[in-house]
Amino acid sequence: MREKTAERKNDYGIKEVKKSPLAKILLKKSLLDEKTLQILLLYYSERARSFEEIARKVNMGRSGAWKRWKRGKERLMRAFYTLELALYLGLLEEEIAELVLEDLADYLDMRKGRKTPLEVQENLQRRMLLALRREGEKSI
Fold first, then answer.
1. Are the CB atoms for 137 and 30 separated by under 8 Å?
2. Mean pLDDT confidence for 82-87
3. 116 within 8 A of 110, measured Cβ to Cβ
4. Is the CB of residue 133 less than 8 Å from the CB of residue 125?
5. C-alpha distance from residue 69 to each of 51, 84, 100 (Å)
6. Considering only CA atoms, which of 5, 71, 88, 97 is closest in space to residue 44?
7. Alpha helices, DSSP H only, in the chain?
8. Contacts of residue 119, Cβ cutoff 8 Å, sequence gap at least 6
9. DSSP state at residue 100
10. Given a cut of 90, is residue 134 above it in pLDDT?
11. CA atoms of 55 and 65, how far apart (whole Å)
12. 1, 41, 58, 109: which one has the fewest Cβ atoms less than 10 Å from its Cβ?
C-alpha cells in the first residue's frame, strides 16, 4: 500500500498545522484543503495502516478517504510539474529559485540525518516569513 519514502516518520499532524500560523498561511495558499492535507499526513506519517483506518480518523467513508488521498497526491504532483515547467522556461525569479533550493537542501539534509525536522522547520519558517513579507511589500 505505501510507497517507501524514508525511514524517518513525519510526525507533523493536522493539530500542529492548526497551531502554526505559518502552516495555516501555507495551506491557504496551497492547492490542498484541510481534509485532504489531514489524509495525506495520516497516510505518509504511517499513523494509519489502511484507508479504512484513515477514514475512521477523519470521519468519512473508505472510498472518500482514498479519493481525497488520490486528489491530494495528484495536486502535489501538479505543483511539482508546475515548478519544473517554470524552471525549464526560466520563469522563476532568482529570489524564488534560491528559496526553493535552500528549502530542498535542508529537506535532503533532514532525510539523510544531518538535520533534525525541527531545524528544517525553523529554517523554512524563517525563509518563508521573509518571502511573505516581500510578497506583501510588492503588493502595496
1. no
2. 94
3. yes
4. no
5. 9, 23, 25
6. 5
7. 14-19, 21-29, 34-45, 51-58, 62-89, 94-111, 117-139
8. 106, 110
9. H
10. no
11. 5
12. 1
